[in-house]
Design goal:
The protein has 305 residues and is an alpha/beta fold. The chain folds into two domains: 104 residues, Dynein light chain 2a, cytoplasmic (Beta-Lactamase, 2-Layer Sandwich), CATH 3.30.450.30; 169 residues, P-loop containing nucleotide triphosphate hydrolases (Rossmann fold, 3-Layer(aba) Sandwich). The chain is 33% helix and 27% strand. The strands form two sheets. It has a six-stranded mixed sheet with strand order 7-8-6-9-10-11, sandwiched between helices. A five-stranded antiparallel sheet has the order 2-1-5-4-3.
Length: 305
């Protein structure tokens, strides 16, 4: 609420419109704001159910002469409702709402997550305003990084919303697909290439895997000492096959292992600043910030269409 200029109040409600929690910037107006939210929810809940049905994920903005209302959901348990001044940026409302809505769902289901707003979200919220291009688009994303940093788990969390404690390390490459409804009339077909972390064995083949990529994640295990030093190797390896500038995001994974983290935010930030990358901290186990990573790529890709 405090990060987006123009936002006056927010509320979390369930799928029947019952308010679970609410907050207003003006404490002395909190009760009246809650009343407004209740009226708005009563008015729009049937419409939301009619338009989105049982969909877990949706985002919608409704404007009146005096207010702008944003509704966002990232799961079956809750809807995040935001009341804002009409001048509030739609892009900021969408980016922050979808991020917070996903956090709310994780909290409701009992997951331990970070409440910090990722730097990547702040950057994305300041991207240019405009109508997204209509149509269905394909984008290839490659995930690189040392073996067992959690690349496969990140993809499984994004594609299937599941996590598996034990799995066999990827040898070579595995390709996954997920279709994401970015907005009404705009679909992104993610082609996600999970590239094995065996540095020596797969070296002769990786240039084929990289070819045609629109974006890259370099994944780091934050519980592995000095694993951030691998970022330079993987970036140099990518650039041999992709001379064009593509968005590169450093993904600091396994951030749920709070007591085992040895790669700090400063460690990653220093490297990100050196190369001009953005970064985000994730947990494939809880799902924290995983969707945000891919949605960032989606919006960056659509800017080039």
């Amino acid at each position: 609420m405090n990060d987006v200029s123009g936002v006056e109040a927010v509320a979390v409600c369930d799928r029947d419109g019952l308010i679970i929690a609410s907050e207003s910037k003006e404490e002395d107006e909190a009760e009246s704001v809650i009343g407004v939210i209740s009226v708005v929810l009563d008015s729009y809940m049937d419409r939301i159910k009619r338009e989105f049905g049982t969909e877990s994920n949706f985002f919608n903005i409704t404007s009146t002469a005096e207010k702008k209302f944003a509704f966002s959901s990232h799961g079956p348990h809750s809807i995040l409702t935001t009341i804002a001044d009409p001048s509030t940026s739609d892009t900021q409302l969408r980016v922050y709402s979808e991020h917070i809505a996903s956090k709310v769902e994780l909290l409701i289901t009992g997951e331990q997550i970070s409440l910090d707003i990722p730097e990547l979200i702040r950057v994305l919220s300041k991207s240019k305003e405009g109508i997204l291009p209509q149509g269905e688009f394909n984008t290839k994303v490659i995930l690189c990084g040392d073996y067992q940093v959690g690349k496969t788990s990140l993809i499984r969390r994004f594609v299937e919303n599941s996590f598996q404690e034990n799995y066999i390390s990827t040898i070579g490459v595995e390709i996954h697909k997920k279709v994401v409804d970015v907005s009404s009339g705009t679909l992104i077909n993610f082609l996600i290439w999970d590239i094995g972390g065996q540095i020596t064995q797969m070296a002769p083949y990786r240039n084929r895997f990289y070819s045609g990529a629109n974006a890259a994640f370099i994944v780091v295990d934050r519980s592995r000492p000095n694993n951030q030093n691998s970022i330079k190797f993987w970036f140099d390896d990518i650039k041999k096959s992709i001379p064009a500038d593509i968005p590169v995001v450093i993904v600091g994974n396994k951030s749920d292992l709070v007591n085992e983290i040895v790669v700090s935010e400063l460690d990653i930030k220093n490297i990100a600043d050196e190369y001009g990358f953005h970064y985000i901290f994730t947990s494939a186990k809880t799902g924290d910030n995983v969707n945000d990573s891919f949605f960032y790529i989606a919006f960056r890709f659509l800017e080039t269409v």
